[in-house]
Amino acid sequence: MRFNLMENPFAMRLGKRFAGLNQLLEQSPLPKATRELVSLRASQINGCGACIDMHTKEAAAAGETSVRLHLVAGWRESTVFTEAERAALALAEEGTRLADAHPGVSDETWATVREHYDDDQIAALVTLVGLINAANRMQVIVRNPGGSYQPGMFAALVE
Asked: Where is the signal peptide, in residue numbers (predicted)?
C-alpha cells in the first residue's frame, strides 16, 4: 500500500464525510442486495481489490448467496438476478465505463431502470454508482489490497 487513508487525520475527516454519504444510501429505499451487487460489479470493472473484498463480504453477511456473488461478473449470462437487478447492473456498468461507451448510459438502459425503480431509488442508484467509482479510484490509486476487510468495520467512521 502506498498510503494508508485510515491513518492520516485529514484523510480520516474526508472518509467520515464519504461514509456519511454511504450511510444515507443505506437509509434509501434501494434494496441492500441491489446496492451490494452494483458496488461489487463496478469494483470488478475498476479492478479494486479492496472494494471487491468489502462488498462481497458485506453482501454475504447480509444473506446474499455465494452463487449470486460468483455470477455478478457474468450477470447477463445468468438466471439468478431479477429484472430490476439486471437493470441496476446495466446502469452500473454503463455508468462505470464512461470512457469506453460514449455517451455513457444508454437510453435503453435508462428506460429499463425507470420501469423498475421509483425516483428515490433512482437517486440512490445514480449516487451509488458515482460514489463506488470514486471509492474504487481512491483505493486503486493508493494500492489498498483486498483480503482483510471485516463486515461492518467502517461503521465507526460515521459515529
From this structure: none
pLDDT in tens, 72-109: 999 999 999 999 999 999 999 999 999 887 778 999 99
Q: CB–CB of 28/131 below 8 Å?
A: no
- Backbone conformation region of residue 68, classed left if phi is above 0, alpha if psi is from -120 to 50, else beta: alpha
Q: Among 32-36, 96-100, 112-116, 139-143, which stretch is predicted with the lowest mean pLDDT?
A: 96-100
Q: How far apart are CA 25 and CA 3, in angstroms?
A: 27
Round the CA-based radius of gyration of the chain to a whole number and report it. Answer: 15
Domain ranges of the chain: 32-147
The DSSP secondary-structure symbol of 154 reads T
> Homologous superfamily of 32-147 in CATH?
AhpD-like (1.20.1290.10)
Look at the pTM and tell me if it is higher than 0.90: yes
> DSSP state, 77?
G
How many angstroms separate the most distant Cα atoms in the chain?
45
CB of 19 closer than 8 Å to CB of 157: yes
